[in-house]
């Protein structure tokens, strides 16, 4: 793994379990875990599901609204971006659903 330290099997299992339990619910923590688990094929499903849960449970919307207090972030904008990702056949290029949604919102 480039730029990250290798982790032991027990630590990796704990991270995957936390993803599966949806106990990680912030952008910073999900990115930290994503960086640690990069290249771990057994983490692909749990990481994909964790990102989808983060976006669909409105955690992303809440964090965006916290970051843009002077400009309330629209749930309609986020919903439209999510729809565009789902409709895009290229959306399978990343397990990070959040990144895909933000890219669509930015591009539109």
Topology:
Blueprint: H1 9-20, H2 27-37, H3 44-56, H4 59-67, H5 75-87, H6 97-107
Helix pairs in contact: 1-3, 5-6
Protein architecture, described:
The protein has 108 residues and is mainly alpha-helical. The protein is 64% helix and 0% strand. α5 packs across α6 (97-107). The protein is globular and about 40 Å long.
The geometry reads as globular
User: What is Rg?
Assistant: 15 Å
Poorly predicted parts:
none
Distance separating the two termini:
34 Å
Helix-strand topology string:
HHHHHH
Judged by helices, strands and strand pairing, the structural class is mainly alpha
Number of helices: 6
What is the makeup of the main sheet? none
Percent helix: 55-70%
| Record field, number of beta strands | 0
Average pLDDT score: 88
The amount of beta strand, in percent, is: under 5%
Structure characteristics:
108 residues; mainly alpha
Question: Can I get a quick summary?
Answer:
The chain is mainly α and 108 residues long. It contains six helices and no strands. The mean pLDDT is 88.
């Amino acid at each position: 793994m480039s730029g990250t330290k290798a982790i032991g099997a027990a630590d990796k299992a704990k991270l995957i379990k936390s993803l599966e339990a949806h106990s990680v619910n912030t952008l910073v923590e999900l990115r930290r875990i994503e960086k640690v688990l990069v290249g771990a094929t057994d983490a692909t499903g749990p990481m994909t599901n964790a990102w989808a849960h983060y976006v669909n449970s409105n955690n992303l919307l809440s964090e965006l609204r916290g970051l843009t207090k002077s400009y309330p972030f629209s749930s309609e904008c986020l919903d439209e971006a999510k729809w565009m990702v789902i409709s895009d056949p290229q959306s399978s290029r990343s397990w990070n659903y959040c990144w895909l949604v933000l890219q669509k919102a930015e591009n539109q």
